[in-house]
Structure formats: structure tokens, C-alpha cells
């Protein structure tokens, strides 16, 4: 199946009336089979149980002061029709807001507005909190039908909405979308980028702790880890993403280098973090400049363990620091790319780390094939049962046990630059794919690759599932994640990754042939993704939360040297065409398109 079939699509050739359906939270509509108050929108709409309850309450409140049963019966149909527009698959375009309907205009077409005003003006005005007589637009108590009709015309001239996003005209659009609209075959798949955080300094990781706190942790290459949370700015208002100013962890004083890939590269939380409070960071820093009076600098790559502070869950306990693993290396020149890797994750209880070749020049790949070197390898560690004298043990089923020249920590070899390896969480229902290790391999101006790495792999046994010529899609592949979230079922099983200068890419496996198909992901414009953003000029990394949702991390200026503005941004990747009922996905973050700081 072509990727354009299962991803959301921008129907650019469509008439304006065919604009992508979207809800008030600027996300795709979904199915709610138990719809009762607004059943016309149950098949494909924007309300679950809570949304229907809000629509019902809005209509009921509008009729509170109606005097007679006859008045209430007459107005009940009008108020229900209007309040249920909150559940329309076009609610985001009807109301243009994630809050209660504003009083700039009402979502009624002019003729229906006049009819509603004449028959149920008190309910209509109460529903939208309007007092047009205060501006002299209408009379408060019209004394004849002629005056009432004149008032209705004046009111609707001022407040009625334009087609097609007004009632009842909008219902003609909804008939086209009783299910997610099928994409035209000539269109390419598009996603939306919902802003999550900005003003960051080279963000490289966003990850959950797996402790049920719904916090996300953002790694800045400069040496800080910051916490991102969802909070309500107002008691009954929408949730917004809030980035803590005070770091969760800060090692900036240790990181003296401002070159290449050196700095704080990743963080990972122990699978039992909720019980033991253990976390691990991977970082590199300069030990000695001009080592032994040469032009080379001596650097160290490190894995270090910390524990959470006992008195503050938003801080690490610096006294708990415990070195796990360290490698020394020389960096030969300022103009040589630094290939540190940075893939860092737990799988099957073991901690994995991808390390690049570092200063190796174009096309060498020598160190990645040398089993007596850690460089150009995927390493693994048992950090729960450390051997005496070091912070870890080697897993018992070491694949190179019969090779006396091989370092025991090696899981796989032959990867020049594994920038951001990740493990597949597996299909949420079947578990299919769980544990597969996806590793990109940044080429040396030759080709960029994506590999599924298995234990014991060597260069002659590893075959990429995707490769592209240097410069065709960009200049450096950036590893991503297999989407396993709940919110966007069309994306399930898609490996979302990118290129440093080439934007977003995606791979999907053909289950019959076993082949993977690459698709360049477009990002929808404002008609498809209202409130969303365009891709950043430079893609740095991708992240994944505890619910399997995927995030893009990028920047406008790929440097964190002193004086360089903090232009790092994080976006949640969403499907504008289809999503599941958000209440079924309570463990997944559902960001609003704005962020603030505390």
C-alpha cells in the first residue's frame, strides 16, 4: 500500500468547501459510536461523551428563562442544532476557537439566523451572551412583528456567518465526511506540526519517564534537562504546554566544548523509574585542549546514573551520581564532523547506546568494523546487576563471546554514525514489531541509510531497509521512531524520521514483500492544519512519549555556541485526517498549539 493512502492528505485541487475537517482543538475528527444528543456527528465528529454533555448543557442553559412549555418546545430544536455544531467535524472552522463561541459572529447562515431570531431570540442571545440592544442595533422588546423582523434582519446582518461554515449550509459538507475522506491518488501524505515548546538551545530529546506523571523531559545539548507539562491557564480553560524554567538536571559547567556533536546528548529513564527513581544520561565533554601539545583535544564519552531527589520529583539528586561507562578519544580538527551517535534506550531490561566513529574522515568506516574499538557500534549494558569494580555487567548472551578480540559490550558493529537509534514499542494491540532496533547511519557524502539492527550484526550481515544518495533527500539522516500512539491510527507502524536539511520522511513496511517504502512527508498548510507550523530549517532529532506519540525537534540555527540565539523548537506530529476519540487516549499528550513557560 502506498503511504499516501494511509496517511492524511491535502486535497489541494479541491474546492474551498472541501477543506479538511478539523475540531476546535485543531485536531482531526473521530468516531464516537455512543453519540446520543448529537447523533448526526457520531460517525465522524468532534465530540465524545464529554463534548456531547457540554453541547446539551449549552442548549439547556439557553432555555432557562423561557416562560412557557410551548416556547421551550419551539426553541429546543433550534438550540440543539446550534449547540451540536460544537460536535461537527468542521467545528474548528465554524467557531475558529478552542474556547466557547465568541460573540464576534454566530455560526448561523443569514436566513436561518433570521428564522431563529424571530422564533427564539432570547435563547439565541443567551447562548452567545449577546446584548445587541445596548448598541442600538435592535429593540429590547419589539412591539410588532414588523419591528421584530426588522430587528432580525439587522441582527443577522451584523452577526451571521458566511457560507459554507454556517448552519445549515455546513451540513452539506458533513455529508461528504461520514468517514475520513479518501485521498486523491495523485496527492502525497501530509501531517501537521503542533507547536509544543520553543526558545530551546539545540533540543535533542523529548521523552516520558514512564511513571504516570504525564511529564515530558527535554534535553538541551548545552547541558540541561527541562520538564514540559500540560496545565490549565484558567480553571475551566484549555490545557497548554508549560516548559519549566528551572532545569530538572544541569551539567552545563562540565560541558566546555562548543563544537560538533559534543554536549548532553540523551536521557533515558529506568523501566522501573516509578519505583526506583533511576535515570541515565549520555554526554561528551572535553578533558584537555591541545592534548600533549598537539592540535588534538582529548574528550570523554560518558554514561552516568542519577536518582530523583527525595524531596522534589522535579529535580535530580546530584549526590547520587554514579559513573556507568566512559570512553576517551581524541578529536583531531575543528572542521571534522563529530560523530557521537546518541541513540540511548532500554530494551528487554538492558541499556543500549549507539556510538559513532567520531573523527573518521570520509568513507573510512574502519573503526566501525574493528571489534576492539567501541566506535561505530551499538553497545549494551546490564545496569541492574553491576560487576565489582564497574557500573554495569555484560549481558550473558554476548554475541561475540567466541571472538577473543571483541569487546564484550558490543551488541552490533558496522555503523559509522548511528544518530538516534530507537526501539519499536510494538503494535498496541498485537505487539507486532516490538523490540526492533531502528538505527540510521549517516553516510560520508555517499549515502544515508536506515537499518534494523539485530544482535551480532556485522557490516556484511546488515542490509539497510532504506538508503538514499547524499544530497537527494538531504545531507544527514536523522533517526526517528515507529509511531505507536493511540491518537492517530493511520500512522500506526510508520517509521517517522528525517534529514538534517531535508525535512520529514517516513517508511512503511509492506507485510507481504517485507520491503519498506519511503515517502517524503509534506506538512499541511493553514487550510489543513490551522494553528500549526511549518517545519524548522534544520531537523535535529525525534522523540516519543509514553503513549507512543512522536515529536519533531529542530532549530533555525544549528549551533549552541555562546551568543547564538535559542531557536530550538519541538512539535507534535499529528494526522489531520483521522484520530481516535481522545478520551480513549488519555495516556497520550494532546497539545494545544501554544506554549508558555514558568
From TrEMBL:
Gene3D superfamilies: TolB, C-terminal domain (2.120.10.30). SUPFAM superfamilies: Soluble quinoprotein glucose dehydrogenase. It is found in: Secreted. Residues 201-457 form the Glucose/Sorbosone dehydrogenase domain. It holds the Pfam family GSDH. Residues 1-19 form the signal peptide. It comes from the Eukaryota. Keywords: Disulfide bond, Glycoprotein, Secreted, Signal. InterPro entries: 6-blade_b-propeller_TolB-like, Folate_rcpt-like, Glc/Sorbosone_DH, Quinoprot_gluc/sorb_DH_b-prop. Its main location: secreted. Residues 34-138 form the Folate receptor-like domain. This is HHIP-like protein 1. It comes from Geodia barretti (Barrett's horny sponge).
Amino acid at each position: 500500500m502506498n503511504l499516501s493512502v494511509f496517511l492524511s492528505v491535502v486535497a489541494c485541487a479541491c474546492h474551498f468547501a472541501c477543506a479538511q475537517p478539523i475540531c476546535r482543538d485543531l485536531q482531526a475528527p473521530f468516531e464516537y459510536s455512543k453519540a446520543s444528543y448529537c447523533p448526526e456527528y457520531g460517525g465522524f465528529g468532534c465530540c465524545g461523551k464529554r463534548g456531547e454533555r457540554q453541547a446539551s448543557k449549552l442548549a439547556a442553559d439557553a432555555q432557562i428563562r423561557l416562560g412557557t412549555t410551548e416556547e421551550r418546545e419551539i426553541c429546543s430544536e433550534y438550540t440543539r442544532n446550534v449547540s451540536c455544531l460544537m460536535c461537527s467535524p468542521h467545528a474548528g472552522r465554524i467557531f475558529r476557537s478552542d474556547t466557547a463561541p465568541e460573540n464576534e459572529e454566530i455560526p448561523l447562515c443569514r436566513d436561518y439566523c433570521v428564522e431563529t431570531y424571530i422564533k427564539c431570540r432570547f435563547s439565541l442571545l443567551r447562548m452567545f451572551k449577546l446584548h445587541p440592544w445596548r448598541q442600538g442595533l435592535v429593540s429590547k422588546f419589539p412591539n410588532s412583528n414588523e419591528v421584530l423582523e426588522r430587528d432580525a434582519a439587522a441582527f443577522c446582518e451584523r452577526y451571521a456567518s458566511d457560507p459554507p461554515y454556517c448552519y445549515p449550509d455546513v451540513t452539506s459538507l458533513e455529508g461528504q465526511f461520514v468517514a475520513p475522506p479518501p485521498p486523491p491518488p495523485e496527492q502525497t501524505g501530509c501531517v501537521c506540526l503542533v507547536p509544543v515548546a520553543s526558545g530551546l538551545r539545540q533540543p535533542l530529546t523529548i521523552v516520558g519517564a514512564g511513571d504516570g506523571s504525564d511529564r515530558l523531559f527535554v534535553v538541551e545539548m548545552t547541558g540541561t534537562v527541562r520538564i514540559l507539562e500540560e496545565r490549565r491557564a484558567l480553571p475551566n480553560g484549555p490545557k497548554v504546554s508549560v516548559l519549566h524554567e528551572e532545569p530538572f538536571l544541569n551539567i552545563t559547567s562540565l560541558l566546555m566544548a562548543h563544537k560538533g556533536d559534543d554536549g548532553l546528548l540523551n536521557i533515558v529513564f529506568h523501566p522501573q523509574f516509578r519505583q526506583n527513581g533511576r535515570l541515565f544520561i549520555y554526554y561528551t565533554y572535553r578533558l584537555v585542549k591541545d592534548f600533549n601539545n598537539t592540535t588534538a583535544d582529548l574528550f570523554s564519552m560518558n554514561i552516568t546514573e542519577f536518582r530523583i531527589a527525595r524531596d522534589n520529583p522535579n529535580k535530580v539528586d546530584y549526590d547520587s551520581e554514579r559513573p556507568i561507562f566512559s570512553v576517551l578519544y581524541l578529536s583531531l580538527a575543528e572542521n571534522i564532523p563529530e560523530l557521537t551517535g546518541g541513540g540511548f534506550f532500554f530494551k528487554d531490561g538492558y541499556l543500549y547506546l549507539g556510538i559513532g566513529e567520531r573523527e573518521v574522515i570520509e568513507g573510512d568506516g574502519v573503526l566501525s568494523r574493528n571489534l576492539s574499538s567501541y566506535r561505530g557500534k551499538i553497545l549494551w549494558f546490564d545496569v541492574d546487576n553491576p560487576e565489582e569494580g564497574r557500573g554495569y555487567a555484560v549481558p550473558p548472551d554476548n554475541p561475540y563471546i567466541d571472538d577473543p578480540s571483541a569487546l564484550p559490550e558490543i551488541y552490533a558493529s558496522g555503523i559509522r554514525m548511528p544518530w538516534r537509534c530507537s526501539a519499536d514499542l510494538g503494535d498496541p494491540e498485537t505487539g507486532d514489531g516490538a523490540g526492533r532496533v531502528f538505527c540510521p547511519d549517516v553516510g560520508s557524502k555517499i549515502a544515508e541509510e536506515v537499518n534494523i539492527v539485530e544482535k551480532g550484526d556485522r557490516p556484511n550481515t546488515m542490509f539497510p531497509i532504506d538508503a538514499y544518495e547524499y544530497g537527494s533527500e538531504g545531507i544527514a539522516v536523522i533517526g526517528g521512531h515507529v509511531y505507536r500512539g493511540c491518537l492517530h491510527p493511520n500512522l500506526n507502524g510508520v517509521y517517522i524520521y528525517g534529514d538534517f536539511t531535508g525535512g520529514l520522511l517516513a517508511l512503511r513496511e509492506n507485510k507481504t514483500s517485507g520491503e519498506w517504502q519511503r515517502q517524503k512527508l509534506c506538512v499541511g498548510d493553514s487550510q489543513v492544519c490551522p494553528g500549526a507550523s511549518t517545519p524548522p530549517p534544520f531537523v535535529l532529532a525525534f522523540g516519543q512519549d509514553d503513549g507512543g506519540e512522536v515529536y519533531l525537534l529542530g532549530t533555525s540555527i544549528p549551533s549552541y555556541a555562546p551568543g547564538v540565539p535559542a531557536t530550538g523548537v519541538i512539535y507534535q506530529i499529528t494526522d489531520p485526517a483521522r484520530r481516535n476519540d481522545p478520551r480513549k487516549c488519555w495516556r497520550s499528550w494532546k497539545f494545544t498549539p501554544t506554549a508558555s513557560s514558568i
